[in-house]
Design a protein that fits this description.
globular; alpha+beta; binds adenosine-5'-diphosphate; seven-stranded antiparallel beta sheet; single chain; binds the ligand O=P(O)(O)O[C@H]1O[C@H](CO)[C@@H](O[C@H]2O[C@H](CO)[C@@H](O)[C@H](O)[C@H]2O)[C@H](O)[C@H]1O; six-stranded antiparallel beta sheet
C-alpha cells in the first residue's frame, strides 16, 4: 500500500458508518469468539464507539477498524476491537472460514464481512501502518525508531486458545491485537517498555504499537459510560522468539516422559525474580501497611463472594477460604514491598528460548480484572502464587495425578527466586496462602466460564486451601544453595514510602 493511499485512509464518525446493517451478524458472531468476555450473558445493545476505514472506500478488500461497545443484560458494558474485511460476496475459498456474514443493505450491501486478521493482505496492511507512524482518525500508530521492522514478511494468525488475537510476521515479529479494550495504557505495553528501558532482556521489548484517542463522553464511551480521555492501547508488535517453546507445553512433555522439571522451575524462579527486581527499580514501589493489607484482603473476600454466586460448587468451602484473607488482614501487611508485577503469571506465559533461557510474556494481567486494579502495585508474591498454582495444574492434567512432581517444582521455583532476591517467598506464608487462594478462586471462575471440563483442577486446590492448615507444612523448607552457585542478591529495592 502506497503512502498516498495510506494518507487517503478515512476516519468516519460513528454516524457516518452505521453499525445498523452489521449489527445482526456481529450479535451472532461475537459470543462465539474465544476472546469474548460476555459469554452466557444476554447482549442488550451494540454501540459503535469508533469506526475507521483503513483503506480508501471502494478498495477490494476493504478494512474497517471498529471499536464496538457491548451492553449486557446484567449491566456490564465492554468495548471490543474488531478488524473487519469487506469484499464482494462470495469470499474466495481460503477466506471462507473467516466469514462473519453477508450485508444485505447499507453501504456494504452485497459484500461479505469477515475477520480481517485472517486475510494476509489486510494483516500486511496493519504492519505497514506500524512501520509508518502516524494518525488515522482517532488511531495513532507509533514505533521505536531504533528497532527495524522488515517490509514484507508473510503474516500468519496464531492459532490456539488466546485471550487476544496475534499475528506472526515471517517468524521475526508478533503483533498482539487486544480484543477487549479500556481507556488507559495496557500493562502489556507499559511494563515491557519499562523493562526494556531498565535493561531487562527477559521480556521481548515492544517495537511498535497503536492506540485510539477518543474524546471523553458522558456515556456510551469505551469504558461503558466512564468519562475519560486516556488513549486505549489496541495492539503491540514485538520480536518473535523463534524456536521457543512455552513452559506449559514443556512441563507437560516432561510429565508425560516421567521426567524431572526442577532445573527448569529453578531457572524460572530466577527469571521471575530478575523481572520483579527490574520492575521494582523502574517503577514506584510502596510498603504494604495495615490499610493496604486490609484493602487487599477485602478485595479477595469480595471476589470470593462474587465467585461463589457464579460457581456454586465453591459454597461449602467459602468460610475456610475466607480464613486465608482474614489472616492477611490481621497480618497488618508486615511492610513487604508492593510493586508493579506481571499479574497473571503461569507456565503458559513463559517461553524457553532457543538458547535455553526463559522469557516472560503477556503482562496484561488477569483479563477479567478492571484495568485500574491490574495497574496497582501489589506484593510480588502474587505472581509467585500464580506460578505455584501452574505446577499444580500441570501435575493434575497428567494421569495419574503427580503431586510429588508439583511439590518438587514449587520448591525449586521458590529456591530459584530466593537465589536472586535473597528472600524465599515461603517466608511470607500468610501472604502466599492468601494469594494462592485468591488465584484458585479466580481460576474456578475462569474455568467455569471458559473451560468447564477443567473446573476440577482449581476445585482440588480449593479443597486443600480451605483446610485451615499452614502452607509451610505443605511445602519443603528452603534448601541451601547448590555448591558453586552465586550468592543471593539483596532484595529488590526497599519500599520507598508506606501508603496512608
Ligand atoms: N514474543 C513472542 N515470541 C514467540 N511466541 C510468542 C511471543 N509472544 C507470544 N507468543 C506466543 O503467543 C501466545 C499468545 O501470547 P499471549 O501474549 O499470551 O496472548 P494472549 O493474551 O492472547 O493469551 C503465547 O502463548 C506464545 O505461544
Ligand atoms: O494466558 P491468558 O492471559 O489467556 O490467561 C488465562 O487463560 C489461562 C489458560 O489458558 C489461565 O491459566 C490457567 O490454566 C493454565 C493451563 O492452561 C495453568 O497453567 C494456569 O496456572 C491456570 O491459571 C489463566 O488463569 C487465565 O487468566
Amino acid at each position: 500500500m502506497s503512502e498516498a493511499a495510506s494518507a487517503r485512509s478515512r476516519h468516519s464518525s460513528p454516524a457516518a458508518v452505521p453499525l445498523g446493517p452489521l449489527e445482526p451478524m456481529l450479535r451472532a458472531w461475537l459470543p462465539r469468539q474465544r476472546w469474548f468476555a460476555g459469554k452466557g450473558r444476554a447482549i442488550t445493545r451494540l454501540r459503535l464507539v469508533s469506526a475507521v476505514e483503513l483503506l480508501p472506500p471502494g478498495s477490494t478488500p476493504g478494512l474497517l477498524h471498529l471499536l464496538v461497545g457491548v451492553d449486557c443484560a446484567d449491566g456490564t458494558a465492554d468495548c471490543y476491537q474488531l478488524l473487519l474485511g469487506v469484499r464482494p460476496a462470495p469470499l474466495p475459498p481460503g477466506l471462507a472460514p473467516a466469514l462473519i456474514g453477508r450485508a444485505e443493505h447499507g453501504p456494504y450491501a452485497g459484500h461479505a464481512v469477515y475477520e480481517g486478521l485472517g486475510d494476509p493482505r489486510l494483516a500486511a496492511l496493519l504492519l505497514e501502518r506500524l512501520r509508518a507512524p502516524g494518525s488515522h482518525g482517532p488511531l495513532r500508530f507509533d514505533r521505536d525508531p531504533d528497532a527495524p521492522i522488515p517490509a514484507d514478511p508473510a503474516p500468519r494468525p496464531l492459532s490456539g486458545e488466546q485471550t487476544n488475537s496475534s499475528l506472526i510476521y515471517g517468524d521475526s515479529h508478533i503483533l498482539k491485537v487486544f480484543r477487549r479494550v479500556w481507556p488507559g495504557t495496557n500493562p502489556d505495553l507499559e511494563l515491557p517498555r519499562a523493562l526494556a528501558s531498565a535493561g531487562c532482556t527477559r521480556v521481548p521489548a515492544p517495537v511498535a504499537w497503536y492506540e485510539a484517542e477518543l474524546p471523553a463522553g458522558p456515556s456510551g464511551g469505551p469504558g461503558g459510560g466512564r468519562r475519560t480521555d486516556e488513549p486505549l492501547t489496541l495492539g503491540v508488535l514485538q520480536p518473535y522468539l523463534r524456536g521457543s517453546e512455552d513452559g506449559w507445553q514443556l512441563a507437560l512433555r516432561r510429565l508425560a516422559a516421567g521426567a524431572d522439571f526442577t532445573a527448569e522451575a529453578h531457572a524460572l524462579g530466577r527469571a521471575t525474580a530478575e523481572v520483579h527486581s527490574a520492575l521494582a527499580s523502574a517503577l514506584p514501589t510502596v510498603a504494604l501497611g495495615p490499610a493496604q493489607a486490609a484493602r487487599l484482603a477485602a478485595g479477595m473476600t469480595a471476589r470470593l463472594a462474587a465467585t461463589v454466586r457464579e460457581v456454586p460448587a465453591l459454597q461449602p468451602f467459602e468460610a475456610g477460604l475466607r480464613g486465608a484473607f482474614d489472616a492477611l488482614a490481621a497480618s497488618r501487611g508486615t511492610g513487604v514491598p508492593a510493586q508493579r508485577i506481571h499479574g497473571d503469571l503461569h507456565l503458559g506465559q513463559t517461553l524457553r528460548t532457543a538458547d535455553g533461557s526463559w522469557a516472560l510474556i503477556d503482562f496484561e494481567g488477569e483479563p477479567a480484572r478492571p484495568l485500574a486494579d491490574r495497574r496497582r502495585p501489589e506484593p510480588a508474591v502474587r505472581d509467585i502464587a500464580g506460578m505455584l498454582r501452574s505446577f499444580d495444574y500441570a501435575a493434575r492434567s497428567h494421569r495419574p495425578f503427580a503431586p510429588a512432581w508439583a511439590d518438587a517444582c514449587r520448591a525449586a521455583f521458590c529456591e530459584g527466586y530466593a537465589r536472586t532476591t535473597g528472600r524465599d517467598p515461603r517466608e511470607d506464608p500468610v501472604l502466599l496462602r492468601a494469594y494462592e487462594t485468591d488465584k484458585a478462586v479466580y481460576e474456578a471462575r475462569y474455568e467455569s466460564r471458559h473451560r468447564p471440563d477443567w473446573l476440577h483442577v482449581p476445585m482440588a486446590a480449593i479443597r486443600r486451601l480451605a483446610e485451615r492448615e499452614r502452607p509451610a507444612r505443605r511445602m519443603p523448607h528452603p534448601s541451601p544453595p547448590p555448591p558453586g552457585s552465586a550468592a543471593p542478591h539483596p532484595h529488590p529495592k526497599p519500599p520507598r514510602r508506606p501508603l496512608a
